[in-house]
Amino acid sequence: MRLGRLALAAGALLLVTTASVPDGTPLSQTERHDAYSSDAARGVRPRGAAPDPAVVRPPHEVPFGAFVGSWDTYIPQIAKFSGWLGGARVQVGHTYLAGNGWADVEGENQVLGLWSQWKLSRPDRGLVLGVPMLVPNEGDLSDGEVVKLLARGNRGEFDRHFLKLARKLVAFGGGDTVVTLGWEMNGTTYTSRCRPDPAAWKAYWRRIVTVMRSVPGQHFRFDFTPTRGLDAIPWTRCYPGDDVVDIVGMDAYDMPAGATFDDMVAEPYGLQDQVEFAARRGKPVSYPEWGLFRNGDNPEYVRRMTEWMRTHDTAYQTVTDYCPHGFWGCTRNPRSTTAYRQLMTGSAGAPGGLGSGQPARR
Q1: What angle do CA 136, 212, 279 make, to 5 degrees?
Q2: Residue 45 in domain
Q3: pLDDT, tens digit (0-9, with 9 covering 90-100), for 146-159
């Protein structure tokens, strides 16, 4: 999601049709086939294999929320969103740090304090915070520039910024925040991306997690959140390790044009691969960003996506609620809006809410 240019957020989600080797060179068709085949060793279902039925669960409520804005002025919107859904129990607040400079990554006291107040006002609430790994996160930097920044990060030059953020979150009562660190890392939109140097990216993720977990009183959970499908690089090549990941997330919009929901489930590195990959590691999944996109007003997608989240081990879900993706903050999708309201109105939420997850390892 583009934070500085929300009207261009769709650009963050464009899929590409080629994978890449660690130096960014496009893979041939044969090499892509070999990459898919080798993923069995990484816990991804081999191409053509039957889905694992063990990952399916009986329908259940999932902690949910909506992205209704990044800054403090948008917090009252959550209550309005809940009222629109007949007083549904919105248990998840979702926001982002902008990433224009390191001061953004350290977190603004007023904003973090207000979000923590919202979270602490009810014990089943939780905060999901998108944290860039590099700045400027939307600076259109070249792959070469990203490689240099990753090297600096691995030398510890940026540790202090993540340490300050972690200390602030704990001080404000947000020590159990879910951190979507370097979200959509398998794409090309952000500076905090993996493709230019996957090994360095994974090492840097591990370093950041270690720094943030060093703060007394923290119980952060780190959510590894690629885009759905094969983007600029298979997301399995960016996975930094089970000891530094608590949730296997996925940003999953209704795209590309003409795709059915079954396509989204079965595609390489799609929904089925995600839930099986997570299950083999004993981790829940999440959907920090989902909503409409390339297929217009599509209530079938809304129903199927909601059913998918309710029948898998989903830690939380938050719809992106502005045009063209959303239902409350966007009036372009009347049929999908009706479907969403039918599914979510009056929801009592999940027992324990987002705060019921296990603390991070130390």
Answers
A1: 95
A2: no
A3: 999 999 999 999 99
